[in-house]
Amino acid sequence: MTQRVGQSLEIAILKALKEQDGLDFFGDFRDLAEHDDSTLYSKEEPPAAISGKRIPGDKQLDFLLRHPDAGYAGLEAKNIREWLYPDRVEIRELLLKCCALDVVPVLVARRIAYPTFRVLQPCGVVFHQTFNQLYPNSAADLATEVRDKTLLGYHDVRVIDAPDADTTHTRLKTFLRDNLPAVLPAAREAFEQFKDLLNAYATEQYTYKEFAGRALRRMRGEDEDLTTNDTPQEWGD
Fold it and tell me: How far apart are CA 130 and CA 120, in angstroms?
């Protein structure tokens, strides 16, 4: 079920990508028309190597996008309940993959915490919040149960093809068609400036506090090699 929920957001992203013409992309599901979503679909992952650069280990991005001016971007979809803070393993893995391939990191998730935006967006990481968790169509009964306020009360759960998921899909299409192509050139410039720090954080050479402090001091043009435990208050915890 966890994998099927994960595929629900990836499928929504794939459908939105097919409706835009500003970005070339890699990543597909081969058998979407062959059976329903009660069983997993076969994912065709994007390349794990570009021009001699390779993601370490047995890791791959969910989608690989190509912008005519900004070059490549790596998109990850996280259809999970937890808010994504900058010290989460999901964040580090996205940065690890994208730094290895030299591609701009893009994250689509249900909810992304303010410190994550505050710390990583100026470093060239692009974010989009869905505000909903998508469930597969075959789990419609389960979705009704988890939304029940006398049970789990997850009011933001939506079944992928249900009418009440239209807002999520519309926002996703707008992000991929209009917003993402518009911000990728600036994100590429920022990513180039902070890529070494992002990679050091992703590979655990720096703790979160060390990374955040160095990133802010670099933005200010200050000496980065100050005491590494003095994370500026502007970043939050």
Answer: 18
Q: What is the pLDDT of residues 84-107, one digit of tens each?
A: 999 999 999 999 999 999 999 999
Name the nearest CA neighbour of 206 among 188, 179, 224, 180: 224
CA distance linking residue 152 with residue 129, whole number of Å: 22
The CA distance from 161 to 100, in Å, is 35
* Cα distance between residue 27 and residue 47, in whole Å: 8
Distance in Å from the first CA to the final CA of the chain:
33
User: How does 190-211 read in b/e, with b if 16+ C-beta sit within 10 Å?
Assistant: bbebbbebbbbbbeeebebbbb
Residue 235 pLDDT greater than 90, yes or no? no
Report d(CA 66, CA 229) in Å as an integer: 38
Taking residue 212's Cβ as centre, other Cβ atoms within 10 Å add up to 27
**At residue 84, what is the residue type?**
L
**pLDDT higher than threshold 90 for residue 229:** no
Strand duo 157-159 + 104-109: pairing: unpaired
Burial (CB count <10 Å: 0-12, 13-18, 19+), residue 99: buried
How far is the C-alpha of 193 from the C-alpha of 195, rounded, in Å? 6
Does residue 185 have a pLDDT over 70?
yes
